[in-house]
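Appendix C. Worked example: Catalase
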Amino acid sequence: MPPLPRPDQSAPAPVGPTGSHDSRAQSGDFLTTAQGVRVPDTDHSLKAGDRGPTLLEDFHLREKITHFDHERIPERVVHARGAAAHGTFESYGSAKTVTKAGFLANRGRTTPVFVRFSTVLGSRGSADTVRDTRGFAVKFYTDEGTFDLVGNNIPVFFIQDGIKFPDVIHAGKPQPDIELPQAQSAHDSFWDFVSLHTEATHHVMWNMSDRGIPRSYRTMEGFGVHTFRLVDAEGKTSLVKFHWKPVAGVHSLVWEEAQIAAGVDPDFHRRDMADGIKAGAPLEYEFGIQVMPDDGTDTFQGIDLLDPTKLVPEELVPVQPIGKLTLDRNPTNYFAETEQVAFHTGHLVPGIEVTNDPLMQARLFSYLDTQITRLGGPNFSQLPINRPHAPVNDMLRDGMHQTAVHTGLAPYLNNTVDGGEPEVAGANDHGYVQTERVIEGRAVRANPASFDDHFTQSTMFYRSLTAIEQDHVVEAFTFELGKVFEQSIKERELAVLANVDTDLCERVAAGLGLPAPAGTPMEDVFVSPALSQIIDTPGPIAGRKIGVIADSGSDLSGIGKLRTAAARRGATVHVIAAAGGVLGKGVRTQVVERTFLTVRSIEFDAFVVAGGTTPSTDIKLIVLLQEAFRHCKAIAAWGDGTAILERAGIGTTEPGVIVGDTAVKAFNDAVLSAVGLHRAWDRAAAVMASEVAPAKPEAGAVKAKPAVKAKPAVRAKRARR
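Step 2, the predicted output written as C-alpha cells:
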C-alpha cells in the first residue's frame, strides 16, 4: 500500500478543469484566461500603438492561439483537406528593382517548389467542392533558405486581428455537440459570428460569390492576402501584395455542380489536378506583385495596407508579372509529402519582410507552434518534404524525432571550443537583416480608425460583378441563411447586407420571406472590372475534358478528328456509351472510357453527340445532357446526333449549343472555343440578351453564341444604384 499523505502534503483541490465542481461546463459569467484572470478585450491583440507590431507580452493572445493550434491531433486544425504537387518556379528577373531575394531578382533562375491546395473548414474526409475559402500555399526551396507564401484564393480575410482567428474558425466548424454540418458555413454559429463582426463582410461577399466554389485548382487565383515589405540590394523598401494568376483563367463551378460533385466525386479537385499532370497538362500560374510606396503611412489612396480585410484594386495598381509557376509532378506518397509538409509564414528569405498587419503578426507565432504539435516536436524541418535546399547550421539540438547526428562540442556562440564556428552572416553574406524602422507607441488593445470601414469594399466587390454573378451571390446568401434556424441571426445579417447594397439585401430578404431592413450603402463606389470572372474571349483549355456520346454506329472517324484537335490544345476527349468496351473495328476503333452509369456532367467541360449515334431513351443519358445544359456547358452534335439533343429537350439554337453537318475543322474549332469560354452564360442571362449581338454561324455549318460579358455601361449603371 502507498504511504498515507503526511499533514504537510495535500492533493489538488477537487474542482473540475474549468474551476468549478462540474467538470462538464465552464463556470463564471466573465471571460477569463485559462488561469481564471478576467479578460477585458478578446478582439484586439496588444500592440505598440494602434498601428504598431504585436507585443510578445500579450499573454492572452499567446494562450488563446496556442490552445487553438493544439486542438486537434493529428490532422491540421484548419486546411486539413488538401492536395499538392511538385513543380518549378522560374523568375522573369523583373522583381530585381524591388527585392534582393535571389530567386526573384535573377532572370531565368529556377527554384523547386511544392504547392498545397486545401479547403479551410472541412476535415480530411470532407469533400473538395464545398463552398469555402481555399488555401494556396507555396514552398520555395531557394538557395538562400526556404520561403513559404501561405495564401488563399481570396485576397482578403474574415478578421483584422489574429487574436480572433480561433473565434472565426470555432464559429465555422461543425457544432461541437453533434459535429454537424461538416465542411459548411451554412449554419447558425458561422452567421452569428460574421453578422456580429462586420469586418468579415468583405470576405463573406467573396465566399458567397463563385470564388467560393472554384472549378479546379488550375483555374483558381491565389493571393498572399497581407501586405509584405520588399527590400532591394540598396536597402530601398516597397510595400507589395502577392498574386498568383492562373494561365488557364479564373473559373468556377455552378452551385448544383458543386453539390453533385460532393456526393459522386468528393475528390473532384485533387483528381482533376492529378489527372491533368499525368496527361501532360501541368498547372501554370504567373506570379505577380502590386507595388506601392513604403512612405511610412502604410496606406495607399486611402486604403489601409495593414488591414487584411481590404484589397487594392488592380485598376489602381496593376499586377506586374515577375515569374511563372509550373506544377508538373504528382507526389509519390500522400502522407510523406502532402500531409507532412509544414508551412510557416515566418519562413522568409533576405529581401522579403513582414509588416505590422495584426493578422500576420499572430500567424508568425501560430504556424510554428502548430507544426510542433502536429508533427510531434521541433524537428519537423528534418522531414524530407520540409528540408531546405540550402546549407543548414542552426545549432538546434536534440528534441523529439531528432534524425541528425550532430558533431562538435559547442552548440552556442560565441565559442572557442569549436573554433568560433559557425559564423554569423551579415547583410553582405546574404544574412537576413531586418530593415531598421521606428517602433513606438502606447501598449493598447485597439485598431486604427481606418479599420472601421467594413462595407465600402464589400459594395465595390458586389457591384463589380456581372448580373449573372450577382445572381449567384444572391442565391448563395439565400441558401446559407436559409439553413440558419435563429431568425434573429438572419435579420442581423440582412441588416449587414443592407449596408452593402440595397438590391442585394432586398433579393435575399425576399428569398427568406423576411422584410428587408433599411441601410446606408455607398452610392458612389469605385468599380473594379478585374473582380469579375466572366470572359468574352476564349482562354486556354489545357486540362479540360470533353465527353463524346457514341455507339457502334457512330462516326468514329469524326471522333478521332475531334480528339486530335483537342489534344493539340492540351484537352482530352473521352468516349461515353451505354456499355464499356471498344467501338468499331480496325484503325478507327474508339475505347469507351465512361458509361451512362459511371458518368455525371460535373466531370466534363463539354458534351458532343457524334453523328450516326442511335437516338436513346436511356434516362441516364437524358439527365446527363440536361444537367450539362442547366450548368451552361458547351453542348454540340454533328449530323443526326442532333436528334439525341432534341430528345433531351435541348434546342439546337440555344446559346452555347453548336451543331454541324460533319466533324470538320470549323465545327471542332467552334467546340473548343466554347470550352475556352468556360460557360455559355447567355442561357442564364436571358435578360441581358438584348445587350449582346448573336455570333454569326460559320459557313452554314456551325451555330453558337458567346458567353455574356457585362459592358462598361452596364457596370456604371449598377454602380449608381
